[in-house]
Write a structure and sequence with these properties.
The chain has nine helices and ten strands. The chain has 302 residues and is α/β, with parallel strands linked by helices. The protein folds into two domains: 150 residues, HUPs (Rossmann fold), CATH 3.40.50; 152 residues, Rossmann fold (3-Layer(aba) Sandwich). The C terminus is likely disordered. This is Universal stress protein. It holds the Pfam family Usp. Belongs to the universal stress protein A family. It comes from Microbacterium lemovicicum.
Length: 302
């Protein structure tokens, strides 16, 4: 059994999207899925004094939501559900994920976004600026993807800035755990200043793609496939919109170089990708916990 998947669940379409993506990740990796609802901690603001009757109502309502959420999951997925208490939804998810050694925290898009695209709500924003666990973002409509599709391909957006090593390790570990193909997307052409000659950009892009592909092939176990492509377009959004994406695909990006070690901070590149990305995205902390690194002899462990 690999490391569990934590789903931040709410009784909304975003919660259903998160549950659907979480179940696909759990099923593909043979992991247990933990469905979590976070309620306000007892030490709430003095403006909202504790009320035993209201607290009991909230607990009962949360339990009902979790039962309804579990009904959305495929029967084959091992699951459990929890009500947690914290100052914020994101804080409760991070604490619980750390407690059980989770591989990912999965959250749905906020309301009001375009179907098949991402719109970050307040919980996702907080997670993406504080989590020490990779965060998987489910776009609106993820609940409609057939669970039998599974996870077919991982596309890692690799640039030249700090954090690429952690991103690469996460991609290899996850691909090994679920048996997905790997596609490495070189962002060199959009990382370089606009003043750089186009010929130089083309050469740099091709060289970077060859470099990351060679690194992937040396690290991937036998049986896993890797390819590399170069992002081409006037902007990140333009490049992403012209790529082909599979129904069972997940994009993986690293944190901003501004992130503290082992913490997330959503950078401008990832934020721009989200505007056009039609598939789930996993954001990886800039440096990884030592316990999550793979063994050279034993292969990837999650």
């Amino acid at each position: 059994m690999t490391r569990p998947v934590v789903v931040g669940y709410t009784a909304t379409t975003g919660g259903a999207d998160a549950a659907a993506l979480g179940s696909r990740l759990a099923a593909a990796s043979g992991s247990a899925l933990h469905l979590v609802v976070v309620l306000p901690a007892d030490e709430r603001s003095v403006i909202t004094p504790p009320d035993a009757g209201y607290d009991r109502y909230l607990r009962d309502q949360a339990s009902t939501w979790l039962r309804e959420g579990e009904e959305l999951l495929p029967a084959s997925v091992e699951r459990s559900s929890r009500v947690r208490y914290a100052e914020s939804f994101a804080e409760g998810l991070i604490a619980y994920a750390d407690e059980i050694g989770a591989a990912h925290i999965v959250i749905g898009a906020g309301g009001g976004g375009l179907r098949g695209r991402h719109r970050l709500g307040s919980v996702a924003q907080e997670l993406l600026h504080s989590s020490d666990v990779p965060v998987a973002l489910a776009p609106d409509g993820a609940r409609d993807v057939d669970s039998a599709v599974g996870i077919t391909r991982l596309t890692a957006a690799v640039g030249t800035r700090p954090g690429a090593e952690a991103l690469f390790e996460e991609t290899i570990d996850l691909a090994t755990a679920i048996g997905a193909r790997v596609r490495l997307l070189s962002l060199v052409t959009v990382d370089l200043p606009a003043s750089v000659d186009t010929g130089v950009i083309r050469v740099a892009g091709a060289a970077h793609a060859d470099e990351v592909l060679a690194e992937a092939r040396s690290a991937l176990p036998v049986g896993l496939e890797a390819t590399a492509i170069v992002a081409r377009g006037a902007s990140i959004e333009d490049a992403v919109s012209h790529l082909d994406w599979e129904p069972g695909e997940i994009a993986i990006v690293g944190s901003s170089r501004l992130a503290r070690p082992r913490r997330l901070f959503l950078g401008s590149t990832a934020a721009k990708m989200l505007h056009e990305l039609p598939v789930p995205m996993i954001v990886v902390p800039r440096t990884r916990k030592k316990s999550s690194k793979k063994s050279k002899k034993g292969g990837a462990r999650r």
